[in-house]
Each structure stands twice: as C-alpha cells, then as structure tokens.
Amino acid sequence: MSVKSLTVITNDEGKDVCVLSRDIDGYLTGHGEYLRNFLRGYLITREAKSKDNRKAITKIGRLAALLVAEFKSGIGDFELLPAGTRDQGEEYLYTIYARHSSLKTPSLLNLRVEVAFPQYSEIDPSNNSRMTVIYDGLLDEFDPHEVQSNWEHAEDELDHFVDSQVALATPAPANQSTVQ
C-alpha cells in the first residue's frame, strides 16, 4: 500500500538526529509494527553499563545508524532526509526518543505516532499542524493493532465532530419571501 511515513529519531534536547522517509507501507500495522519489532528491548545506557550488550546503545545517534542500516534494503523504499524535514506528504510520523531520569539510569525507547488529519484545520484554522498524536509511550508497549483499532473509532467520532462544528459555523440560508 502506498502510505508515506517519516521516522524521526530525536536526542535528549528534542532535536532531530535522523529523518527517514518511507514511500510505501507506512501505516501502523506495516512500518509501525516493523519499527516496534526491530527496536523492542533496546536501551539507551549513556554512561551506564548494561548486562545485555546486544540491545544496549550508548548514544541515540548510534541507534539511528542501526535503523538506517536495517532499512537500507531495496530501491526507493527509504530515503535519508535532512534533520527537521517534515511535510513531505507523510500520513504517519513516527518519533523515537529516550527519556533519561539520570546519566546512570538506562532509558527504554519511547515512540510517538502522529497521523495526518487535515480536516482538523476546518475547526481551528489557526492550527496549521495537520498531525494528530495517536500514541505516545514506551516503544516496547506499542501495539499497532490496538492503536489502529482505537484510532479508527476516534477518527469516526472526530469526523462527526468536525462536520457538526463546520455546520455550526456555516450561516443558515436566509428565508426568502416570494413576491407574487
């Protein structure tokens, strides 16, 4: 399926370390599930020592390199983009980040998933963001099927809400009296 997505890895300051564009299968149960399966169990240890060295990374930039290496298969599937790149026609935006409580405490990876929902701008034209967060939590706990199911239900409710708000904002036609 031709669903475009961006995958962003951010550092502790929230700045982009890596932006990957995927032109196909970017939906939750495609790319989202693949991300979860590949990155599940990774720790960002910074200066801490970990007993499980296979899944311990000392810097988020090294995790970005692993992700690029994993996704470099095939012609046209993935493209590495400059930091800060957005609005490339993506329907999904996956952001991978770590939350450190201290230098000595390893951090599990977190994942924020945003989905394009351009109809929202009809309610609030001042909000030029077309993305809506549908998941933000531990990557290891991300269940793309559950999030998809919850989002589909919420999307129906949001569609109804948008329609009702647009209808309220649209002036009713004036009663025209007919002269005979």
Describe this structure in words.
- By secondary structure, the chain is α+β, with helices and mostly antiparallel strands.
- The longest helix has 26 residues, at 144-169.
- It has one domain.
- The chain is globular and about 70 Å long.
- The mean pLDDT is 80.
- The protein starts with a strand and ends in an 11-residue tail after the last helix.
- Helix content is 27%, strand content 26%.
What's the layout of helices and strands?
Layout (H helix, E strand, L loop, with lengths): L4 E6 L5 E7 L5 H12 L3 E2 L11 E2 L2 H11 L7 E4 L10 E7 L8 E10 L14 E8 L5 H26 L11
Parallel strand pairs: 1-6, 3-4
Antiparallel strand pairs: 1-2, 2-5, 3-7, 6-7, 7-8
Proportion of strand residues? 25-35%
Radius of gyration: 21 Å
Average pLDDT works out at: 80
The end-to-end distance, rounded to whole angstroms, is 60 Å
Q: Spell the H/E element sequence.
A: EEHEEHEEEEH
Task: Give the assembly state of these chains.
Answer: single chain
The beta-strand count equals 8
Fraction of helical residues: 25-40%
Number of helices: 3
What structural class do the secondary elements suggest?
alpha+beta
User: Would you identify the regions where 5 or more consecutive residues have pLDDT less than 50?
Assistant: none
Shape: globular
Domain unit count: 1
Largest sheet: 8 strands, mixed
